[in-house]
Write a structure and sequence with these properties.
single chain; mainly alpha; 2 domains; about 0% strand; transmembrane; Zinc/iron permease; zinc ion transmembrane transporter activity; Zn/Fe_permease_fun/pln
Length: about 400
């Protein structure tokens, strides 16, 4: 994307063709980003829905490869080229520092990592507080043993707080009283707490009681399962919020780059150069739209939510916005000027850092390597997803020859 043409002779500038390119880019971007979203919001039979979900998953994986190649093939080389141009000040030359593009990309990825952590931490802290509160409520209902058994993911600090709450309840009824088969475990009781060996005995006894005498739904202990289900639902909500934040960040990085390439396209004078660049960008925007649309479709927005449509619209309009800016400044814009080179280089570096972090960490590592469901899926499914990932990267690498 480093076609830094100087628009000094406007006689060869085909305004109608450039305006047509604006709408063509909008159509290609909208088609790519809306394809996965519309699949999700369309009602099909159960079998068809299952197949569509599989297709969307494959499109998301294909999009991960697209985003990865966009950063490596389209952004970083352009950023290094712009920020190492001989016309730039000495600070960008050999006597200064020649790694500005890589440095800016790395700082963008580090800052993105910090911002994402801060944004998601408060949601997980809220879930942690809710979990502790539920556990205390279960103890007060006589469900202390069940709570400890089922809430195994409470960390040490939470258990300490829970034990401190226990000490305040000292003198209350022993939570394991009335459970048969625990006479031999009495020696393990200390200050009203239940220890590991005890829990195993209680679980075994309770399992027998549940099979022999199922508890009534309206009994205090009969609500434990529902309480714990609420906790799991809360955890799922936190995970979805985290993925939503990641999708917003991904869209920001893609949109930032799209505006820049729109300006580059609009300030290209020669018709032959413009047409070849336009065709390459149409494929580029469509593939990126598929990648982003797959992420948006996976967030599970309600049918009444405007978020998926607003996110899709912003992506579809980002490159046309850049083209409109480029058309407006075509008489004064000099793509080879020092200011233009630095601005484009910095923007491409920032976008590269954002997309590299998103592709490697949020998409590839999280949705493939650290995804238990993916690891336990069929061999055919795993092979298909890896092929889709590599094909996405290959497709954008080929497009990089022209754009």
């Amino acid at each position: 994307m480093s076609d830094n043409s100087t628009v000094s002779d406007l006689e060869d500038y085909n305004l109608s063709l450039h305006i047509g390119g604006l709408f063509a880019n909008m159509a290609a971007s909208a088609m790519g980003v809306l394809l996965p979203v519309l699949f999700v919001y369309t009602t099909f039979s159960a079998e068809t829905t299952s197949k569509i979900q599989s297709v969307i998953q494959t499109m998301r994986t294909f999009g991960s490869g697209v985003i990865l190649a966009t950063a490596f093939i389209h952004m970083l080389p352009s950023a290094f080229g712009n920020l190492s141009d001989p016309s730039l000040p000495p600070i960008f030359q050999e006597e200064g520092y020649t790694g500005w593009a890589g440095l800016i990309a790395m700082l963008s990825a580090l800052l993105l990592h910090l911002l994402e952590f801060v944004a998601t931490q408060r949601f997980f802290d809220h879930a942690k507080e809710l979990k502790l509160k539920k556990a205390i409520q279960l103890q007060q209902q006589g469900g202390r043993v069940h709570a400890l058994d089922r809430l195994q993911d409470i960390d040490g600090s939470d258990k300490k707080e829970l034990d401190e709450a226990d000490s305040l309840e000292e003198g209350r009824k022993n939570p394991v009283a009335g459970v048969t088969g625990l006479e031999e475990a009495d020696a393990c009781l200390h200050m009203g707490h239940v220890h590991g060996g005890e829990i195993l005995l209680v679980n075994k006894s309770n399992q027998h009681r549940q099979h022999s005498h199922p508890e009534k739904p309206d009994s205090p202990n009969g609500t434990l399962s529902g309480e714990l289900d609420d906790l799991h639902l809360e955890e799922e909500r936190q995970e979805r919020r985290s993925r939503t934040i990641g999708t917003y960040i991904l869209e920001f990085g893609i949109a930032l780059h799209s505006v820049i390439i729109g300006v580059t396209l609009a300030t290209t004078i020669t018709t032959s150069d413009f047409v070849s660049l336009l065709i390459a960008l149409l494929f580029h925007q469509f593939f990126e739209g598929v990648a982003l649309g797959g992420r948006i479709a996976s967030l599970g927005f309600s049918r009444k939510s405007l978020s998926p449509w607003l996110l899709s619209a912003w992506f579809a309009c980002s490159t046309p916005l850049g083209i409109a800016i480029g058309i407006g400044i075509r008489s004064t814009y000099d793509g080879a000027s020092v200011t233009a080179l630095i601005v484009q280089g910095v923007f491409d570096s920032c976008s590269a850092g954002i997309l590299l972090y998103t592709a490697l960490v949020q998409l590839m590592a999280t949705e493939i390597n650290a995804n238990k469901a993916f690891r336990e899926s069929s061999l055919h499914h795993r092979v298909t997803q890896f092929i889709a990932l590599w094909l996405g990267a290959a497709a954008m690498a080929v497009v990089g020859k022209w754009a």
